[in-house]
Specification:
The complex is a heterotrimer of chains A (360), B (374) and C (159).
Chain A (H helix, E strand, L loop, with lengths): L5 H15 L2 H38 L15 H11 L10 H19 L16 H9 L2 H11 L3 H32 L4 H6 L6 H4 L1 H18 L11 H4 L9 H26 L12 H9 L2 H20 L7 H29 L4
Chain B lengths: L1 H12 L2 E5 L11 E7 L2 E8 L7 H5 L4 H8 L7 H16 L5 H29 L3 H22 L8 E2 L2 E2 L7 H24 L2 H7 L7 H7 L3 H5 L7 H4 L20 H23 L20 E9 L2 E9 L7 E5 L1 H7 L1 H5 L4 H11 L3 H5 L1
Antiparallel strand pairs in B: 1-2, 2-3, 4-5, 6-7, 7-8
Helix pairs in contact in B: 3-4, 4-5, 5-6, 5-12, 5-15, 6-7, 7-12, 12-15
Chain C lengths: L1 H28 L26 E3 L7 E2 L6 H5 L5 E10 L2 E12 L8 H5 L6 E3 L13 E3 L6 E2 L6
Parallel strand pairs in C: 2-7
Antiparallel strand pairs in C: 1-5, 3-4, 4-6
Classes of the chains: A mainly alpha (360), B alpha+beta (374), C alpha+beta (159).
Chain lengths: 360, 374, 159
């Protein structure tokens, strides 16, 4: 049915490994392989996203962006990364040493855990839980723990304010993220990512679920931007108010981990949005146009996935580089007075749609 | 009784002070604010000045009158030309020298260009303070056009050093009028973009509205002048009250607002840019012929006495007081710098506001720190 | 009902204002012509300063290695910061002892570019040059001697 099916490839790898090893060793080896692949993917996506952000924001601002290192400044992020690696790790006096060092890793581990559940193509995902949506929501909210710890252990008043803001923000916006995903779960009838994607074979959910799905999509973009601490919801950093918020005291590679974590979280929420609303790796199918669907099938699913994710990331960057930052009480007002009630109405609407077969 | 003492003691212990500055992104300089916080709410704050105190007033006592001018640049560097003009007008009035109309017109045009440039940078920084970084680049991009005009005519970009007692350093560049007209056409297209990007934005309006309220009475008692004072309804435009240079010859209206909040201060400045363009339009084609410089004695000596001259700088009333003993140096110089007075209202305005509001209030006041410390 | 309509009108007005803002930045994104960045070291060849640009103080010499400075010291007196030092010597010219310029020291690091020296110079011996690349590793290199070695005062043209 699908031109590109990676489940044969993965199962053949699994069979060849298990033919020479015991089941336990097979699991370990497969985990190590998956880990290395994700690590490489991580570094690659981080580098590309940082470069893309700098270039895109430059074009919004009538600038050229990095142009010096390599052609069109392509090597700029690599140069920056080397610089960050070589920087001194400043140890803060009276800081809680254990938590101070642990915090960036918690942020990075949370995003690592989340990325495993994302299907990149058919049969190309590390974990395929039947509660995938729930799992991603659960592990991605561990990241805020790292931010809270970083702010608290830095022994800096600005950091503490930033961490407290972040706590209040993530706790409230987690609700909206969850409810907007639930809207689609109601439509799909499953929480498993692979099944959600395959259910979109006849049309992406944003088209299938029409009005409620569109509202859920917009709410998901807004609240997931808030959850990743990106502008206009970057209150935890709030450069002009709190200098750098929770990572004021971090330097060198520990700062780089926070930085990378922010971009990876952005990638993860964008890819979840792409998977749940825009069909993930599923090509654009229109019922009735078989030849069109055939042509679309020839484009590899990985390209579909990445381009959908890229569009959503671009929208998030566009939003970040246009709007001013909200104040903390306005941020909470937006969530509790606007997004949450709309979301609750929306999920009811979606349930009605599904019951009465109003969706396509 | 003991309960109250204990409560006070606990309050004292639980006070949460943060130092905003001297190195802080939103103070735009080396201003230090000791902010007493309760959660996110500002209970009170104390500005500590003096981190960039250079003793300019004392230095002036050893300088000749033409040398003083270049020091006034260094107060409010965004309104450098206007500050220079204050000293020049003072010396000219004291010696009763009549400068030609040409000088007056050119001075006025450059004053207004300075005002637009200053407000452009303020707009850019105001957006940046609230987190919209893109405005910073748009504001600076447009300001660059004015700086190029300055560079061509005056030789300097920021600190133009174009005024001298008796007139101007040199005549305007032949391209000056053409370039200014080109700029007006350009900026009239760009200024509505400012409104689309920031003024109408719902997030921005929410951040600024009803934040940092300053009533007219308080504005007068704190001496908050300029756009910040006029946003509270304090009619304080020196250009209207005591017209100097060519301001008597042009028609323009003083921008006044009643609300007194940060949004009113913001809108006041945006409207002032339109009004400044209006003034320049009236003058640019009518620059009369004449000498750009009235010959003066090589060593200027002011007659014994006390002199005061005030002008409308970009941020409010800028005054120069000079007490002379008839020497070539002044006996005592005092500058009435607008930012010092505007800063004094900050504590009153930011009480019981959020810490993010404090940033919004500061950016709406448009403080320039070297002007505060002198 | 009133508050109900207000809730929705606020919501839609807010969304509309946000989209207006997005349009502005979006329109710049698709118009790369609007980019104003100048790539500085690369554009050195085309970078022209305006003629009145105050880059540094210079003393023009003609091709006979002559300048106009009479070492009168007016510029030194007028300089607010003491950036100019004039070291003069006495030479015997046509049997008369005459004060001539030995060294014209200019401290670029102290100069505030107020322009008083150029304005007050009675013989127009100094002008502002367009050079602006003054960055150095040592402060002492900012102390410059403006008159070239061996240069003399321009002889007055006899009519």
């Amino acid at each position: 049915m699908f031109l590109y099916d990676f489940s044969e490839l993965t199962s053949s790898i699994h069979n060849s490994i298990s033919s020479v090893m015991s089941p336990l060793a097979t699991t370990v080896v497969e985990m190590v392989i998956a880990g290395i692949v994700f690590l490489l993917f991580y570094a690659l996506v981080g580098l590309i996203l940082v470069y893309a952000e700098r270039k895109i924001c430059a074009f919004f601002q009538c600038r050229l962006g990095p142009m010096r290192v390599g052609k069109w400044g392509l090597m700029q992020t690599i140069a920056d990364f080397i610089k960050l690696l070589m920087k001194e790790l400043i140890m803060i006096k009276n800081a809680d040493k254990l938590l101070f060092n642990l915090a960036p890793f918690i942020v990075i581990i949370a995003s690592f855990l989340a990325i495993g559940a994302i299907p990149f193509a058919k049969g190309l995902h590390a974990l395929d839980f039947d509660i995938g949506v729930l799992y991603v929501m659960a592990v991605s909210s561990i990241g805020v723990l790292g931010i809270l710890l970083a702010g608290w252990s830095s022994n800096n008043k600005y950091s503490l304010i930033g961490a407290m803001r972040s706590g209040a923000q993530v706790v409230s916006y987690e609700l909206s993220v969850g409810l907007s995903l639930m809207t689609i779960v109601v439509l799909a009838g499953t929480m498993q990512f692979s099944e959600i994607v395959e259910a979109q074979n006849t049309g992406w959910f944003i088209f299938k679920g029409h009005i409620p799905a569109l509202i859920a999509f917009v709410i998901f973009i807004i609240s997931s931007t808030a959850e990743t601490n990106r502008g206009p919801f970057d209150l935890a950093e709030a450069e002009s108010e709190l200098t750098a918020g929770f990572h004021t005291e971090y330097s060198g590679i520990k700062f780089a981990l926070f930085f990378l974590g922010e971009y990876m979280n952005m990638f993860i929420v964008a890819s979840i949005a792409a998977t749940v609303f825009l069909g993930g790796w599923m090509p654009l199918h229109i019922v009735g146009l078989d030849s069109f669907n055939m042509i679309m099938d020839y484009i590899p699913p990985f390209i579909w996935f990445i381009s959908k994710t890229a569009i959503i990331i671009f929208i998030m960057m566009w939003i970040k580089w246009t709007f001013p930052r909200l104040r903390i009480d306005q941020l909470l007002t937006l969530e509790w007075k606007y997004l949450l009630p709309i979301n609750l109405v929306n999920i009811t609407l979606m349930a009605l749609c599904v019951l009465n077969q109003w969706h396509f | 009784m003991e309960d109250i003492l204990l409560k006070n003691k606990l309050d004292k212990e639980q006070e949460y002070f943060i130092n905003m500055g001297p190195q802080h992104p939103s103070t735009h300089g080396v201003l230090r604010l000791l902010v007493n916080l309760q959660g996110e709410t500002v209970k009170d704050l104390k500005p500590y000045c003096g981190y960039i105190h250079r003793g300019i007033e004392k230095m002036c006592e050893r300088y000749t009158y033409s040398q003083i001018i270049h020091l006034t640049d260094r107060l409010d560097y965004m309104s450098a030309h206007i500050n220079n003009e204050a000293v020049c007008l003072l010396v000219e009035n004291a010696l009763q020298i009549e400068v030609s109309d040409r000088v007056k017109y050119i001075r006025t045009i450059i004053d207004e260009l300075t005002r637009i440039a200053s407000h452009q940078l303020w707009w850019a920084a105001a957006g940046m303070d609230l987190g919209a970084l893109t405005t910073f680049f748009y504001g600076l991009r447009d300001r660059e056009k004015i700086l190029d005009i300055f560079e061509e005519t005056c030789g300097g970009r920021l600190l133009v050093s174009y005024n001298c007692p008796g007139g101007l350093m040199y005549d305007i560049h032949p391209n000056f009028q053409k370039k200014v007209k080109e700029f007006l056409i350009y900026f009239k297209k760009k200024l509505p973009e400012y409104d689309q990007l920031l003024s109408g934005n719902v997030i921005f309006v929410q951040r600024m509205k009803n934040v940092g309220l300053l009533t007219k009475e308080k504005a007068i008692s704190f001496g908050v002048t300029g756009p910040s004072g006029r946003a509270s309804g304090f009619s304080s435009d020196i250009r209207k009250k005591e017209p100097y240079s060519a301001y008597g010859n042009v028609k323009f209206k003083e921008i006044l607002r009643e609300e007194g909040d940060s949004l009113a201060r913001y809108k006041c400045r945006i409207d002032e840019m339109w009004e400044s363009m209006n003034i320049i339009e009236q003058l640019i084609d009518n620059i009369p012929d004449g000498s750009y410089f009235t010959k003066m004695k090589p060593i200027i000596k002011l007659p014994e006495g006390e002199y005061y001259q005030r002008v409308e700088a970009c941020r409010g009333e800028f005054g120069v007081y000079i007490s002379s003993k008839g020497e070539k140096n002044p006996y005592r110089v005092k500058f009435r710098s607008p930012n010092f007075f505007n800063l004094s209202a900050l504590d009153h305005m930011s009480r019981n506001q959020k810490i993010a509001d404090l940033v919004a209030i500061m950016s709406s006041l448009d403080l320039v720190i070297p002007d505060i410390d002198r | 009902m009133n508050s109900f309509t207000k809730y929705f009108s606020d919501l839609f007005n807010g969304i509309h204002s946000l989209i207006t803002g997005l349009k502005v930045t979006g329109s710049y994104f698709v118009r790369p012509k609007e980019i104003v960045t100048q790539q500085y070291p690369e554009n050195r060849a085309t970078l022209k300063m305006f003629e009145r640009f105050k880059g540094e103080l210079t003393m023009p010499h003609n091709n006979l290695n002559e300048h106009d400075c009479t070492a009168c010291g007016i510029c030194e007196m007028n300089c607010p910061n003491g950036s100019i030092e004039i070291i003069s010597k006495f030479d015997v010219i046509d049997g008369k002892k005459k004060k001539v310029l030995d060294k014209y020291i200019y401290h670029l690091g102290m100069c505030t570019f107020c322009g008083l020296c150029v304005k007050t110079c009675p013989s127009d011996a100094i002008i502002f040059g367009q050079g602006f690349e003054h960055a150095t590793f040592e402060r002492t290199t900012l102390n410059k001697q403006l008159n070239k070695p061996g240069s003399v005062l321009k002889k007055e043209v006899k009519e």
